Amino acid sequence: MRISVIGCGYLGAVHAACMAEVGHDVVGIDVDAAKVALLSAGQAPFHEPGFNEVLARNVAAGRLRFSTDFADLADAQVHFIGVGTPQAPGSIAADLTYVDAAITALVPHLGEHPDGPTLVVGKSTVPVGTAARLAEVVAPTGAHLVWNPEFLREGFAVQDTLSPDRIVYGLPTDPAQATASRDTLDAVYRTLLDQDIPRLVTDYATAELVKVAANSFLATKISFINAMAELCEATGADVTQLAEAIGHDDRIGPKFLKAGIGFGGGCLPKDIRAFMARAGELGVDQALTFLREVDNINDRRRSHAVELARTAVGGELSGKRIAVLGAAFKPNSDDMRNSPALDIANAIAGQGASVVITDPAAGPVLARQRPDMEVAPDAATAVAGADVVMLLTEWQDFRDLDPAELKAHVATPWIIDGRNALDPVAWRAAGWTYQGIGRP
Ligand SMILES: NC(=O)C1=CN([C@@H]2O[C@H](COP(=O)(O)OP(=O)(O)OC[C@H]3O[C@@H](n4cnc5c(N)ncnc54)[C@H](O)[C@@H]3O)[C@@H](O)[C@H]2O)C=CC1
Ligand SMILES: O=C(O)[C@H]1O[C@H](OP(=O)(O)OP(=O)(O)OC[C@H]2O[C@@H](n3ccc(=O)[nH]c3=O)[C@H](O)[C@@H]2O)[C@H](O)[C@@H](O)[C@@H]1O
């Protein structure tokens, strides 16, 4: 099938490449000319394991191209919308400017397609009610609108796109449109559906809510364990053992129970806030007041990490040398949107410390974006002369560090393990003062 993907960021570029990988003829459209140039050359504009290969292979095979010109999507039958929906400036609500602009630019190119109904498929994460509004904008063209939320995780984006846990179709209310839309989307996802991936068919509102409910649940799970970490810190208990023990209960499960400096990224933080804002508009803000606490607990983890650093150097950060390992919001990604690591590094620098930061993938990006920051090429260089080392993004490279070897480079062997990723016994045995989160 001929497919377009509008918005070629972390979601859209991977979706476009994966749709080509399963045999479709795909054009990716983005307003960012530099990104389009890189993608057209088969080069990933961001770090995502496995993506480069899928991208390069499909561009070379001629199944995947990129453009800034919406006219290039005119012969596609299915148009995915994957533009950003960031937090609006000065508000907790989602900024829908990019979604609206994408639809406005798309509509003049929509029309009858010889192979069946033309579909506009929303993948961006939007406030409930957006799909119904956009369906009216699209309706005069004869195209149908479907909401098909995306659940991929950065770092696993290719695998999650080609083999998701589930696929959700939010379909139009008109039965004929719903059937035609479902059958067309089934044809798009045939290779995935053949793997027996659960496919759930809902109305627009349910599909939109599934997405924000899932992210809210994940954020809540992380803040729950971080709240337990606060209790562990007050009592001398160990949150890693607590998480392991409760995680053995099938009803709770072991995943997303890693206490630390909390969640960040381009999605969980802004999605829970946009959800609260939308609930307020709908007059049901009370239903989501718990998410405010989820957000507060998460914020407290960042200020707590700054406090740990301040205490480690005797109460005054000014003039101290702090080495920060990790800048991305999670390992295996170079994404620094709302990154706890970067936020903490900034706060510590703001208190007068001399901060040096290193990150295997985000480091070079940071060095370009933030000439004011000292970015080191690797951990060994970063820790030279440090009064405190802080591990804030748990890259495997950092987990594998040899505490004895590293000790030779630092001024004081003091490590704050903001992700509980290291073995306290090994670090202490090598002569370090080890401080984890919520563990003795
Ligand atoms: N990053 C992720 O892992 C996931 C993201 N999402 C959702 O997907 C959406 C996109 O997120 P990301 O890919 O992370 O954002 P992003 O910021 O990486 O990418 C958005 C892209 O859209 C482009 N764009 C903006 N306006 C445009 C327009 N009018 N026409 C064409 N392109 C335009 C931008 O230049 C950018 O390349 C958001 O709603 C997000 O919540 C959902 C699941 C996973
Ligand atoms: O809507 C989205 O964009 C995506 O948001 C998250 O994916 P992602 O942001 O890539 O990353 P996660 O793996 O969820 O991690 C988010 C943050 O939580 C932190 N985290 C995660 C797990 C944990 O136990 N503890 C913890 O602090 C991570 O370090 C990271 O900062 C969801 O997991 C995806 O399903 C969703 O599609």
Automatic annotation (TrEMBL):
Catalysed reactions, semicolon-separated: UDP-alpha-D-glucose + 2 NAD(+) + H2O = UDP-alpha-D-glucuronate + 2 NADH + 3 H(+)
UniProt domain UDP-glucose/GDP-mannose dehydrogenase C-terminal: residue ranges: 323-424
Positions with a binding annotation for NAD(+): D30, K35, T85, T125, E154, K270, R337
GO molecular function term, any single one: UDP-glucose 6-dehydrogenase activity
Keywords: NAD, Oxidoreductase
Gene3D superfamilies: Cytochrome c1, transmembrane anchor, C-terminal, NAD(P)-binding Rossmann-like Domain
EC numbers: 1.1.1.22
Active site: residue positions: C267
Sequence positions that bind substrate: F151, L152, R153, E154, K211, F256, L257, K258, A259, G260, G264, K330
UniProt keyword Oxidoreductase present: yes
SUPFAM superfamilies referenced in this protein's UniProt entry, alphabetically: 6-phosphogluconate dehydrogenase C-terminal domain-like, NAD(P)-binding Rossmann-fold domains, UDP-glucose/GDP-mannose dehydrogenase C-terminal domain
Domain of life: Bacteria
A Pfam family annotated for this UniProt entry: UDPG_MGDP_dh
Family: Belongs to the UDP-glucose/GDP-mannose dehydrogenase family.
Family matches, as NCBIfam families: NDP-sugDHase
PANTHER family according to UniProt: UDP-GLUCOSE 6-DEHYDROGENASE TUAD (PTHR43750)
Task of the protein: Catalyzes the conversion of UDP-glucose into UDP-glucuronate, one of the precursors of teichuronic acid.
Name of this chain's protein: UDP-glucose 6-dehydrogenase
